[in-house]
């Protein structure tokens, strides 16, 4: 069970504890959505009775269901960790990894919630999200001021990838939307930013699609769920911001039609030749019969 210790929430001179829960993703589509942080008084709790600080608990994503006859299942957050003071208020902040939800329509025409993973740094004392990253993070650290802007950068660790990020800047993919099911495997990725930049790089499951100074790029991707990550660099080569989305790409219909056409083009001559050889063989047998058969 992922839990995190936080500062003294109720002024009893003891650190308190946080637990996060969310609606679990379903194999056949998620009917409900919702995510919450629950705070507990460590000093007053026992092994048999956990005392909740209900006035400090926080519904991070409202709860609702598409169909009232199925309420879904709760699970713990993917991760929750105390990462120290990020906003300079003298109190510890929390890094959480959880689901976010977007209403969509599945292949059967039914409404459902598509889920994707996000990471957030939250101020639990004020129930505020300080930073959100549309990527699954293992951990995050504040580090030195690398670009002389009088503000410390972040080091983000996600699997085998390590990023240094300037927290002042933001880049966001505006099209397509995360969890969107596309109608073609050829499409444009479009984004916007509030910062001065040197270049962008687009990754598809960590494979670079190249650099650009434009705010869009055309791609052609194979079918299935694809992870698209956008990196923004400044003049020093520092990654100043990142954004990640997940999309579903359909089968390339044109390629499929061409494949079937090529197969048909190969099969038709085979059928014609096969029939020709059968006719020739029949003709030989008929001629031999008319001539009195073959001599032994």
Question: Could you write a compact summary of the structure shown?
Answer:
It contains one helix and 19 strands. It has one helix spanning 253-290; strands at residues 3-6, 16-23, 32-40, 58-65, 74-76, 79-84, 93-105, 111-123, 128-133, 139-142, 154-158, 161-165, 171-175, 186-193, 199-204, 207-212, 216-220, 224-233, 239-249.
Which descriptor suits the 3D outline?
A: flat
The helix/strand class is mainly beta
Report the biggest beta sheet as strand number plus sense, adding barrel if it closes. 5 strands, antiparallel
Instruction: Give the beta-strand count.
Output: 19
Low-confidence stretches: 253-260
Number of domains: 2
Radius of gyration over alpha carbons? 30 Å
Strand proportion, as a percent range, falls in: over 45%
Question: What report would you give on this structure?
Answer:
It is a single chain. The strands form five sheets. Strands 1, 2, 3, 4 and 5 form a five-stranded antiparallel sheet that branches. The chain has a four-stranded antiparallel sheet with strand order 6-7-8-9, with no helix packed on it. It has one helix spanning 253-290; strands at 3-6, 16-23, 32-40, 58-65, 74-76, 79-84, 93-105, 111-123, 128-133, 139-142, 154-158, 161-165, 171-175, 186-193, 199-204, 207-212, 216-220, 224-233, 239-249. The chain folds into two domains: 1-133, no CATH class; 137-251, Immunoglobulins (Immunoglobulin-like, Sandwich). The longest helix has 38 residues, at 253-290. 13% of the residues lie in helices and 46% in strands. The model is unreliable at 253-260 (pLDDT under 50). It is built from one helix and 19 strands. The chain starts with a strand and ends in a 6-residue tail after the last helix. It is mainly beta and 296 residues long.
